């Protein structure tokens, strides 16, 4: 009999990947098999390895496509196959998550397990809505209650005790039973003017909240069309929500952004925009593959030019595989097109000698010539993509600088994840011209008409990228500098000016 795997019961928090624990993130990124629920956010699922077995057991209120008994069986079966299984549950696995039942089944089957606590939405959603669940002047106790009804549609709660506690009451899974909860609290003597709040999709970029009192919260929720998942908070601490609100004040809150990126790079921009409150969808349409190239003799060359961070990684992957390291480049100048390309050198203990002011191959050549960093006695080696733009070579030809080119990686495209409606996004961001080309190619393969790009607001890292976007009819915005931080600052400036 082969090795039996281990099951990790992991609380995935309220759906915002920034609120994963360090250990949860490590387990997710290294998962062999994962069994997950409906409320696990897309951004968290995107962290899983492509090779991981993904099993969606998507339970939701009133609808259980996979019964709990079947989930228990899946965990045991996958572990017995020798896989380490990550069981992802929303919030914390033991806060109305039935995690205890799953552990009982694992113990009975002789499967080893480990529990990784998660941040419960009861605490996190309140914090993101500006509500401190306890406060010395308002509430000295916190009580988390399930609002999930029994099969007969009734809630079995001791309302008299709940009201008598005079603490903060947080009801999870409560939207469908809101009417019962309010009537029960009022009948037990709670004041109709008691502050309360409903929070929908807590901690996520599209979080919404409704503030009111027991007398009007139902009508307010109906007017705002609040839907599940939502939690109901009752208590005087809710009166602090407007004063303590920080999440709704983030400059990009409510903005939907499509970040078109390479498969293995480019999460930095998405992370920066998410921290500013935007709802960011990372669209990895392109994947790079290192070509099987022989390391060239560098003797004839004075300068090596890398046109992308992918190129830096591809070259050093081959260099290290050949038993060499950065000393192989001794005496050579290194030039990088773009700050991201320059930063890629740092992983290998190197600094580039030159990075142009614009993320553009032509600019690199012209600025090196203007600063007398190149002469006809130099010879350059361009290490670039198989489908590289000819602009850099053309500028070197015009300057009389001899060079050779070596294709060290190529790009593949996948249109499967292309959104059906690009116009539903406030912005599309591009950090390389190849990202624009990738979007256009994938859209064509998916059968989308070229007119779909007309007028789309595009934020592009540099002039070459911007020109590609303009050719598709997009409305282009360029940041002052060709950096990730400048791109983020540009969007903040646009919306800060609009709200001034």
Overview of the structural elements:
By secondary structure, this protein is of the alpha/beta class. The chain folds into three domains: 7-119, Tetrapyrrole methylase, N-terminal domain (Cobalt-precorrin-4 Transmethylase, domain 1); 123-244, Tetrapyrrole methylase, C-terminal domain (Methyltransferase, Cobalt-precorrin-4 Transmethylase, Domain 2), CATH 3.30.950; 250-500, Rossmann fold (3-Layer(aba) Sandwich). It is 32% helix and 21% strand. The protein is built from 17 helices and 19 strands. The chain has helices at residues 22-29, 42-45, 68-80, 99-109, 121-128, 159-165, 178-187, 217-224, 241-244, 267-275, 309-321, 339-344, 361-370, 391-399, 433-445, 463-471, 484-499, and strands at 7-11, 33-36, 53-56, 85-89, 113-116, 142-146, 168-172, 195-200, 208-213, 230-234, 256-262, 279-290, 303-306, 333-336, 380-385, 403-413, 427-430, 457-460, 475-477. The strands form three sheets. It has a nine-stranded mixed sheet. Strand 8 (195-200) and strand 9 (208-213) form a beta hairpin. Helix 3 packs across helix 4 (99-109), helix 13 packs parallel to helix 14 (391-399) and helix 15 (433-445) runs parallel beside helix 16 (463-471). The longest helix is centred in the last third of the chain and has 16 residues, at 484-499. It starts with 6 loop residues before the first strand and ends with a helix. 42% of the residues are buried. The model has no long low-confidence stretch (mean pLDDT 90).
Question: Tags for this entry?
Answer:
Cobalt-precorrin-4 Transmethylase, domain 1; alpha/beta; 500 residues; Rossmann fold; elongated; Methyltransferase, Cobalt-precorrin-4 Transmethylase, Domain 2
């Amino acid at each position: 009999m082969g090795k039996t795997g281990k099951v990790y019961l992991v609380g995935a928090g309220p759906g915002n990947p920034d609120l994963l624990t360090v250990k949860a993130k490590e387990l997710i990124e290294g998962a062999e098999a994962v069994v997950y629920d409906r409320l696990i956010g897309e951004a968290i699922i995107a962290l899983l390895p492509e090779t991981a077995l993904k099993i969606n057991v998507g339970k939701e209120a009133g609808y259980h496509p996979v019964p709990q008994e079947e989930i228990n069986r899946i965990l045991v079966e996958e572990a017995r196959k020798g896989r380490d299984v990550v069981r992802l549950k929303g919030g914390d696995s033991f806060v109305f998550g039935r995690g205890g039942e799953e552990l009982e089944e694992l113990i009975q089957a002789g499967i080893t397990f480990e529990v990784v606590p998660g941040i419960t939405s009861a605490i996190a959603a309140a914090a993101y809505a500006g509500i401190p669940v306890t406060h010395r002047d308002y509430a000295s106790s916190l009580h988390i209650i399930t609002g999930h009804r029994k099969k007969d549609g009734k809630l079995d709660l001791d309302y008299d005790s709940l009201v008598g506690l005079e603490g903060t009451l947080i009801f999870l899974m409560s939207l469908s039973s809101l009417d019962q909860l309010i009537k029960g609290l009022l009948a037990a003597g709670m004041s109709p003017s008691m502050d309360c709040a409903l929070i929908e999709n807590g901690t996520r970029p599209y979080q919404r909240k409704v503030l009111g009192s027991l007398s009007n919260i139902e009508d307010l929720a109906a007017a705002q069309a609040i839907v599940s998942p939502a939690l109901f908070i009752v208590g005087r601490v809710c009166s602090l929500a407007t004063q303590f609100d920080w999440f709704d004040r983030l400059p990009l809150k409510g903005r939907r952004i499509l970040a078109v990126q390479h498969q293995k790079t480019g999460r930095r921009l998405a992370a920066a925009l998410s921290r500013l409150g935007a709802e960011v969808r990372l669209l990895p349409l392109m994947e790079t593959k290192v070509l099987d190239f022989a390391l060239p003799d560098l003797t004839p060359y004075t300068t090596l030019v890398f046109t992308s961070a992918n190129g830096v990684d591809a070259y050093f992957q081959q260099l290290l595989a050949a038993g060499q390291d950065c000393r192989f480049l001794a005496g050579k100048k290194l030039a990088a097109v773009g700050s991201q390309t320059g930063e890629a050198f740092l992983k290998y203990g190197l600094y580039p000698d030159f990075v142009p002011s614009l993320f553009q191959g032509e600019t690199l050549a012209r600025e090196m010539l203007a600063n007398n960093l190149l002469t006809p006695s130099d010879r350059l080696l361009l290490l670039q993509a198989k489908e590289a733009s000819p602009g850099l070579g053309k500028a070197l030809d015009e300057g009389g600088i001899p060079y050779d080119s070596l294709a060290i990686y190529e790009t593949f495209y996948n249109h499967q994840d292309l959104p059906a409606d690009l116009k539903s996004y406030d912005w599309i961001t591009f950090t390389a011209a190849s990202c624009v080309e990738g979007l256009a190619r994938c859209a064509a393969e998916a059968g989308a008409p070229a007119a779909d790009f007309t007028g789309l607001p595009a934020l592009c890292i540099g002039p070459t990228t911007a020109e590609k976007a303009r050719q598709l009819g997009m409305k282009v915005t360029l940041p002052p500098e060709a950096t990730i931080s400048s791109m983020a600052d540009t969007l903040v400036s646009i919306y800060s000016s609009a709200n001034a």
